């Protein structure tokens, strides 16, 4: 509780770091913050052209099927890969003043999460334009996204702390996230996975998250309760484990940096 109280007391610093990240992301570009909406829109146009005209995947409106799963994945992958080097990037700040070090990876994940929320505007517009539409189950989407946020945050605590001691980790993560994406049913459906391997795929924490989001947005149905349970388990487990690992490893940050 003391740790949570301390984070609350430094909430303004966290907010300023997130704002700084959002401001500098497209600094100097002509469109500026509008790239938050233009970039996913251009991606959607490319997916539509490729998978509707050139590569027919055999799934109705496959570009939407892919897009609704890719957006939460991009948030997750960006959070993990960017937060890995976050402590090292802010080493001068860490050496000069005291503040809860957790704020640094939190600011990275919060910025990526806000970017995903803005991108959801394009997702909803695509759902309506494609005539798939939006169902009442969309009310469950914020719950899934918050749980994904907690899972990403917990893992970000771990990789950001470990990377201080093992600098190669941030480079390894690029390969790991690429392999992780192909091991998650984003480009394909879980029904395409051989039955004897499905239990292995279900051990992937991102599998129930992607399936639940796709159920809500693409299939317009209630997510499987077993998936909801797995998401809750992974999210709570990783946020607790990540917090304690970070708190233990942060004691040696100044010496290592």
TrEMBL record:
<dbReference type="GO" id="GO:0140359">
    <property type="term" value="F:ABC-type transporter activity"/>
</dbReference>
<dbReference type="InterPro" id="IPR047817">
    <property type="entry name" value="ABC2_TM_bact-type"/>
</dbReference>
<keyword id="KW-0813">Transport</keyword>
<keyword id="KW-1133">Transmembrane helix</keyword>
<feature type="transmembrane region" description="Helical">
    <location>
        <begin position="225"/>
        <end position="246"/>
    </location>
</feature>
<dbReference type="InterPro" id="IPR013525">
    <property type="entry name" value="ABC2_TM"/>
</dbReference>
<keyword id="KW-0812">Transmembrane</keyword>
<dbReference type="GO" id="GO:0043190">
    <property type="term" value="C:ATP-binding cassette (ABC) transporter complex"/>
</dbReference>
<dbReference type="GO" id="GO:0015920">
    <property type="term" value="P:lipopolysaccharide transport"/>
</dbReference>
<protein>
    <recommendedName>
        <fullName>Transport permease protein</fullName>
    </recommendedName>
</protein>
<feature type="transmembrane region" description="Helical">
    <location>
        <begin position="30"/>
        <end position="50"/>
    </location>
</feature>
<keyword id="KW-0997">Cell inner membrane</keyword>
<keyword id="KW-1003">Cell membrane</keyword>
<feature type="transmembrane region" description="Helical">
    <location>
        <begin position="102"/>
        <end position="129"/>
    </location>
</feature>
<dbReference type="Pfam" id="PF01061">
    <property type="entry name" value="ABC2_membrane"/>
</dbReference>
<feature type="transmembrane region" description="Helical">
    <location>
        <begin position="62"/>
        <end position="81"/>
    </location>
</feature>
<feature type="transmembrane region" description="Helical">
    <location>
        <begin position="172"/>
        <end position="190"/>
    </location>
</feature>
<comment type="similarity">
    <text>Belongs to the ABC-2 integral membrane protein family.</text>
</comment>
<keyword id="KW-0472">Membrane</keyword>
<feature type="domain" description="ABC transmembrane type-2">
    <location>
        <begin position="31"/>
        <end position="249"/>
    </location>
</feature>
<feature type="transmembrane region" description="Helical">
    <location>
        <begin position="141"/>
        <end position="165"/>
    </location>
</feature>
<dbReference type="InterPro" id="IPR000412">
    <property type="entry name" value="ABC_2_transport"/>
</dbReference>
